[in-house]
Automatic annotation (TrEMBL), chain A:
It comes from Botrimarina colliarenosi. Its main location: membrane. Belongs to the NrfD family. It is a multi-pass membrane protein. This is Polysulfide reductase, NrfD. GO terms for cellular component: plasma membrane.
UniProtKB/TrEMBL annotation, chain B:
It comes from Botrimarina colliarenosi. It comes from the Bacteria. The chain crosses the membrane at residues 21-45, 51-73, 94-114, 146-165, 185-206, 218-241, 262-283, 303-321, 333-355, 361-383. The keyword Repressor does not apply. This is Quinol:cytochrome C oxidoreductase. Keywords: Membrane, Transmembrane, Transmembrane helix.
Length: 478, 409
């Protein structure tokens, strides 16, 4: 590889200065060496006083999370009638929020597993961040089915506990039960992956810590990591194994979630393309959220050299790919609904697009299919403000996608049972509250843990042998 | 590995112009086999079996071309590097779509425009009478409209394949960087067009064999199998060519390893798609949907279904899961042949059970085998004459040095 990788005329930080798009620039820009990367990342967690914006954000997010907690309490005391769910639309916001949050998590798993296996070096700067998002998104997701079962104190019924006194076993033919296993496995593997990947960086924080409590806390978390060759060998092997194990999880979790709808006979829900379509949508929404968080975070935490515009550019491209797949699925669904000749199916789709809730359908199409197409243009992919706005559109669109699916319940086979869905203020409050929970966890992560995988970033730096920005390497590059 | 770039080139990198002539033999043999299959079908009164067998044969070679086209587009779109060494082979494979189109035209003539409903039941207008579901599909399942659509799909693909092949061969002699950029630029708009056309082509050509049946997943299913089949063909091609001294240095173990990994991924992806389609239809048990699988649960077809589950998914999943196998050229040659056979069984499972005429299933299968062998002969001729006189490696591509010195780590 050597010097061929550094194009002539390349100016760090300037995207258009790379003469050929197929030549890798150094993924880390600016005058950075191993030490400065460590300093920049650790400083975020070590700074005794985080930026004021962090405090404001934390107080705001934690209040919303507290509101969610209070609303859950109110729900448990009062009953699920506090939601807008009714006889027709028996699954309202709780399932929409559940699917939305599970989907958000998928970017982390894709980045840590599939992009690792595909040797995409750009993943190293964003994987820790996205993996953390996965965990927090799963926490938010798991909350909703948990409280949706009505009598939450019987939640353990979901597990196949061999108990003769219970006289009851879970319905193994129900995809809702498969969800318990799918999401449970997903949460476990993601947590393991995230934590294991963090051990070398936690050890770095431990070694740099001055306060004894900090040193002890990071010491316990870094489980005796000393960075010996043996430890690294085992670590690398475990990492590759977990990546291979997590790869099917990228597909399986949202596949099972899509089965929740697709195994039914309901028009608009039962369609065979649902599994890959849901997976593509999940990755799409996940990358939307990564961009939403990453663009401000790199600004506030001074990470612009580590998470460069080129990383953002790669994420935008994934958004075009997955957004287009989702658009492909919408089109196929619509066509087959017509082609299949089933009048109920046809009605469900016409009703989605032109019925009373047409605005939800077209919000979904505009945000998910049309807005990501702007990323075909290079100037859009180079403008952080525009990317941020489009990423918000992606988040909105993907929430609406699930909402549109749920709204199919408003008008099913018998017109006599048609009923419009109106969310209550508890519904809306819990949606907002779940964002509060997510951001609270996220801000805590930013405050106390290494938000960039320093050890992995350094591997990418060392990998580019001719990197002129590494000390002692400047001569080799020219 | 980097030394390879500067090593003396002892491999053959350019196909001789006489290759087109050499391809005449398999081509003529293939045409003879196709003619023979038609004669057998006609003589035995198994015309319906023959047209299904012929569709299978054409779909098989078309799927390899379509897979090649996808490989080329995905390579450019993702800024691929290691694929540069095999890119030309994929481009030539995509170029064979023109010959597949020529073979397909016979289906349009015999199966659609001649008014015979031996292949597509909806060609017979009686099918629509008194059938509410069919009545609503009448505008779509119209022979003229179907013919236009089929031609449009092929024309789109051939235009894309030839554009890429043309840019790529011109890159060998002049302005390599400009052409590389152009190919990358074209790959963008081509990809969505490719996806949509392939989706509707598979609906039209194979889903409408059972006019009541529908599955939104069907296009993805055909795509997954096609790309997996193409990768197997590419591995086979590399091994055969290297046996003749072609690209012996350029295509390294590393490239086999990556091709094998990609094929492994698509074995799993195919299994995922096939299972999801089956599971959802089985679970919901809606008559218009289950009828397709119902046909495949009678006679010999259940065994084919099981053979697919085992041979197209479980056995290869375990078979080339190991890195040692994926880096072993001879073993990958075996798995490539295996997957090509499985891809045929897969398409046969989609097409052949739709034969409605009474008669021995064995005849249908044998006709399918003869016709596919024939179409493969013609495909081989198309490939060889497409390759004749060309560089088999994009010798001037700026990515080539990276691809040649590339190694897995």
């Amino acid at each position: 590889m050597a010097t061929a990788d550094i194009p002539a005329g390349y100016v760090p930080g300037k995207l258009g200065s790379v003469p050929e798009p197929w030549i890798d620039p150094p993924w880390i820009e600016g005058d950075n060496d191993f030490r400065s990367v460590t300093d920049k990342v650790c400083r975020i967690a070590e700074n005794p006083r985080p930026p004021v914006a962090w405090f404001i954000g934390f107080v705001f997010a934690a209040s919303l999370a507290g509101m969610l907690g209070a609303m859950i309490g109110y729900l448990i005391i009062t009953g699920v009638g506090v939601w807008g769910n009714q006889n027709s639309v028996s699954w309202g916001f709780p399932i929409v929020n559940f699917v939305f949050w599970v989907g958000i998590g998928h970017a982390g798993t894709l980045i840590s597993a599939i992009l690792f296996l595909f040797r995409q070096h750009w993943r190293t700067s964003i994987n820790r961040f996205a993996e953390a998002m996965t965990i927090f998104a799963v926490v938010c997701a798991g909350t909703f089915p948990g409280i949706h079962i009505g009598r939450v104190w019987f939640a353990y019924y979901l597990f196949p506990i061999p108990d003769t006194r219970l006289y009851m076993w879970p319905q193994f033919r129900s995809p809702l039960l498969w969800d318990v296993f799918a999401v449970g496995t997903y949460a476990t593997v993601s947590l393991l992956f995230w934590y294991m990947g963090m051990i070398p960086d936690l050890a770095t924080l431990r070694d740099r810590a001055r306060h004894p409590i900090r040193r002890m806390a990071y010491g316990i978390l870094s489980v005796g990591w000393i960075g010996s060759a043996t430890q690294w060998r085992i670590y690398e092997k475990a990492y590759a194994l977990l990546a291979a194990l997590a790869t099917p999880l990228v597909l399986s979790v949202h596949t099972i979630v899509s089965f929740d709808f697709a195994v039914s006979q309901l028009p608009g829900w039962h369609t065979t393309i649902f599994p890959p379509y849901f997976v593509a949508g999940a990755v799409f929404s996940g990358f939307g959220m990564v961009l939403t968080l990453m663009i401000p975070a790199r600004e506030w935490f001074g990470l612009k050299d580590i998470v460069t515009m080129r990383h953002i550019d790669c994420m935008c491209k994934i958004i075009i790919a997955t957004g287009s797949m989702v658009g492909f699925a919408y089109l196929t669904e619509f066509f087959i609904a017509w082609y299949g000749g089933n009048p109920y199916e046809q009605f469900a789709f016409i009703n989605r697009a032109f019925g009373p809730t047409w605005w939800a359908y077209w919000t979904m199409v505009t945000c998910n299919v049309i807005s990501p197409q702007l990323f075909w243009f290079g100037f859009v992919r180079r403008n952080p403000m525009l990317i941020f706005i489009i990423s918000i559109f992606v988040n909105i669109g993907m929430w609406f996608e699930r909402y549109v699916i749920i709204l199919s319940l408003e008008r099913t086979f018998i017109p006599g049972s048609w009923q419009s869905f109106v969310p209550t203020w508890i519904d809306l409050g819990m949606l907002v509250g779940s964002f509060g929970l997510f951001f609270t966890l996220f801000l805590l992560f930013c405050r106390f843990l290494p938000i960039v995988a320093m050890s992995e970033v350094k591997q990418v730096m060392a990998h580019v042998d001719g990197n002129p920005h590494l000390p002692g390497k400047a001569a080799a590059a020219h | 590995m980097a030394s390879l770039v500067n090593a003396d080139i002892t491999e053959i990198r350019q196909a001789s112009a006489g290759l087109a002539g050499a391809g005449f033999l398999p081509g003529a043999l293939g045409a003879a086999l196709l003619g023979g299959a038609a004669a057998i079908g006609f003589a035995m009164g198994s015309w319906e079996q023959f047209v299904h067998a012929y569709l299978l044969a054409v779909m098989y070679v078309t799927s390899l071309g379509v897979g090649g086209l996808f490989f080329v587009l995905a390579h450019h779109l993702t800024g691929g590097r290691w694929g540069t060494t095999v890119r030309r082979l994929a481009e030539i494979t995509a170029g064979t779509l023109a010959v597949s189109f020529a073979m397909y035209l016979l289906i349009l003539v015999l199966g659609v425009l001649a008014g015979s409903d031996a292949l597509y039941p909806w060609v017979n207008p009686d099918m629509f009478v008194g059938d509410q579901i069919m009545e609503s599909k009448r505008p779509y399942l119209d022979p003229t409209w179907f013919t236009i659509r089929s031609c449009v799909y092929y024309v789109i693909w051939i235009a894309m394949a030839w554009t890429m092949l043309g840019l790529s061969t011109r890159q060998d002699s002049s302005e390599p960087t400009k052409r590389a950029r152009a190919m990358q630029w074209y790959a963008g708009p081509m990809m969505p067009i490719f996806a949509l056309s392939l989706n509707f082509a598979s609906f039209d050509w194979m889903m409408t064999l059972e006019p009541h049946w529908f599955s939104t997943m069907f296009g993805v299913y055909f795509f997954a199998g096609s790309f997996e089949g193409f990768l197997a063909w590419l591995i086979l091609l590399c091994v055969v060519l290297q046996g003749r001294g072609v690209l012996t240095q350029s295509v390294t173990t590393e490239h086999y390893h990556d091709l094998a990994k990609l094929m492994f991924a698509f074995v799993v992806f195919w299994g995922y798609i096939a299972f999801s389609q089956y599971m959802l239809i089985w679970y919901a048990a809606i008559p218009e949907e289950t009828l397709w699988y119902d046909i495949r649960q009678h006679g010999v077809w259940p065994f084919w279904g099981l053979a697919l589950a085992a041979g197209h998914l479980l056995v290869p999943f375990l078979g080339f899961m190991s890195k040692a196998v994926r880096r072993n050229k001879q073993l990958m040659l075996f798995w490539a042949c295996w997957m090509l056979a499985m891809h045929w069984i897969d398409l046969a499972y989609v097409i052949l059970p739709q034969v409605r005429a009474e008669g021995s299933v064995a005849v249908t299968i044998v006709l399918g085998l003869i016709a596919t062998a024939g179409a493969l002969g013609v495909f081989l001729w198309a490939w060889m004459s497409g390759a004749a006189g060309k560089w088999l490696l994009p010798v001037q591509d700026p990515r080539l040095p990276i691809a040649l010195s590339y190694h897995n780590h």
